[in-house]
Amino acid sequence: MHRIIIEGNNTLNGSIKISGSKNSAVALIPAAVLCDEKVTIANVPNISDIDALDEILNYLGAIVDKKDDTITIDSSKIENKLIPEKITKKLRASYYFMGALLSKYKKVEMYFPGGCAIGARPINLHLKGFKALGAKVEEKDNLFIITADELVGTKINLDFASVGATINLMLAAVKATGTTVISNAAKEPHIVNVATFLNNMGAKITGAGTSEIKIIGVKHLHSCFHEVVPDYIETGTYMILASLIGKEVTIKNIIPDHVKSVISKLEEIGVPMEIGVDFIKISAPEKLKAVNIKTQVYPGFPTDLQQPMATLLTQAKGKSMINETIWENRFLNIAELKKMGATAEVITNSKAVIVGPCKLKGKKVKATDLRAGASLVIAGLIADGQTIIENADYILRGYEGIVEKLSKVGAKIRLEKMD
Ligand code: EPU
């Protein structure tokens, strides 16, 4: 267990380099097992969710070679065996091995995945899609046994544009017989990144990034080199922070188009930004205006930035309403922000109100999930005095080198390992 200790109320100055996307990398690594030749993935973030996937690859018998941010995976001799529940539960993305192993072996046994407790997180859409492709799904307590004589391309309409289901079904369909069309597909940048990776291996996928993805099944996938797309949630997190205490903060190595919804919200809040081809420069304005936030699937405002944004809104003048439409349990940071002096109230599972500006004071708080943790790091950095964030391991799941990156721009922040 780790905790993060912050001495707040400093300005930040300098540049922050964004790492590869967590939510892309955690899908690319399981996708790599589809290939019987070596694949190399670069710009992989150094976060604990990747370590957990590494553990799964090793367990299955893949040969994994890691050098800096590049990982080479040779899955030619893996064994299709049940991954122990303890490892599966370490993260949500372990469920991408369902689609990948089903596609490769026509059989997979897997426990229900883990992940942050931000809602019930069912996987019914994944299973419905596997069934549509011809698989039989048996469920015994927490264990899923999915088998198919043959996976056959078909038309799948997702009831909701689920990121996980879209990726899992692409993985399952990539070697199916015939053509699969996923409609109402998710459009997030990581969907495109995964489709590009599969295409680099010889898959025939078109339409990724739109709501209709077409997959023509292929028999063989081959070796390739691929790069993880920059993390637009990490980008947005630092944009929010820079809007609060940035003297002049440049967020580098990004794709500005992926954070269009964040740029537009920050503009509404009154934050001036210089937007370059692969960077955004932000200096915090004197005053921030209250706004309403509604989380939506991409390209709408991302749920993964709702909690960091809540911290910013404690400093905005007036009443801000947050409408969280994706997850049922994503306001746990509000209670912690209130401990620090925020005027905020959770009204329902999907609605919260924040009234600002109000000076935050450093306190001992607890990260309840990854993005709640990010919300508290921002709060600690703008607060007077010392903030101690317990359960900081949640933060390390998704933000590469957060302490180092923030220290480099002037933050007084450190990580402490607890016994
Ligand atoms: N849903 C269902 N049934 C399903 C799948 C999803 O009802 O079979 C519902 C969920 O309960 C939720 C909504 O659909 O209400 C969205 O779920 P989605 O499947 O899109 O989310 P996910 O794939 O489980 C990924 C990210 C999350 C991010 C969401 C939404 C990964 C590993 N996780 O989760 O990231 O919030 O998409 O963008 O890619 C994070 O990074 O902090 C994080 C939680």
Structure description:
There is one protein chain. The chain has 419 residues and is of the alpha/beta class. It has two domains: 2-19 and 230-417, Alpha-beta prism (UDP-n-acetylglucosamine1-carboxyvinyl-transferase, Chain), CATH 3.65.10.10; 22-227, UDP-n-acetylglucosamine1-carboxyvinyl-transferase, Chain (Alpha-beta prism). Helices cover 32% and strands 26% of the residues. The chain has 14 helices and 24 strands. The protein has helices at 22-32, 48-60, 85-88, 96-105, 124-132, 163-173, 189-200, 232-245, 260-269, 306-313, 332-339, 370-382, 393-396, 402-408; strands spanning 2-7, 12-17, 39-42, 63-67, 70-74, 107-111, 136-140, 143-147, 155-157, 179-183, 204-206, 212-216, 224-227, 246-252, 273-275, 279-282, 288-289, 293-294, 316-323, 343-346, 351-356, 364-366, 386-390, 412-417. Strands 17, 18, 19, 20 and 21 form a five-stranded mixed β-sheet that branches. A four-stranded mixed β-sheet has the order 22-23-1-24, with helices on one face. α6 packs parallel to α7 and α10 (306-313) runs parallel beside α12. The longest helix is centred in the middle third of the chain and has 14 residues, at 232-245. The model has no long low-confidence stretch (mean pLDDT 97). Uridine-diphosphate-2(N-acetylglucosaminyl) butyric acid is lined by residues 23, 26, 92-93, 116, 118-126, 160, 162-165, 186, 303-304, 326-327, 370-371, 398.
